[in-house]
Records
---
Amino acid sequence: MTSIYQDRWIECTTQGVQIRGYYFPWGSKRIPYSRIQLLRRVSMTRFGGKGRIWGTASPGYWASLDPHRPRKSTALILDLGVGVKPFITPDDPDAVIAAILDHTDIMHVIDDQDHGPVV
């Protein structure tokens, strides 16, 4: 697996996206690109992600561990078609978007810069 993008918590390879710190205490979630059906970019607010270092207040989303999330402004939501949607905050969201678009049939990102979900 060749790495296309990597920061401390998110890695995009030729096979898919790996989210470190997704499961307690430090387990990773690996998502093949073929499972990603929709990609949303959202602006974070105090209750819409910035205040959540790990976990969720909403059963439809799961914020992976990112101690630096309060200092970030943009999150990505990966819709896998069923269950919980991973809520990730890569250091370079545009690079992660480019990697996902290059490896999936998704034609565009839903750009919801007004607000993110309560997480």
---
Amino acid sequence: MAKYFTYNDQQISVGDTIRVHFKINEEDGKIQTQAFEGIVIGVDNRESNKSVTVRKIASDNIGVERIFPLQSPYVISLELKRKGNVRRAKLNYLRERVGRGATKVKESFDNAKIVAPVVTSNVVSKDAPRVTPKVKAKTKTAAKATPKTK
């Protein structure tokens, strides 16, 4: 059981959300291109028989799975939409889930761009405006004690 495969110098692993563009032959002899976007639930990474199983949730919460052989001339391209972080080689447990829970996989933060502020030095120049926090002054006022009436 494989957890990942390489397609056009791009590593795609189980749990990733991908979009597969593939050709469909119609009855008229026309060739149409369709896209299938879903979660990779399994990878068969044999040398010449590489295939990937993709699952998506269609309308009315119906799960649809397709197995795409990667060496097929009908598969045009694969797009990686989102990296997932899973610990299993096969995500068969997603088949039992319904609705949004069937598409929930932890997101991997390997490719996330986390922008942190860059501090160059701790020295503040004389021309820089000084920022002082505004503190609300507390005033002591003598509260008059009023007797409570019944």
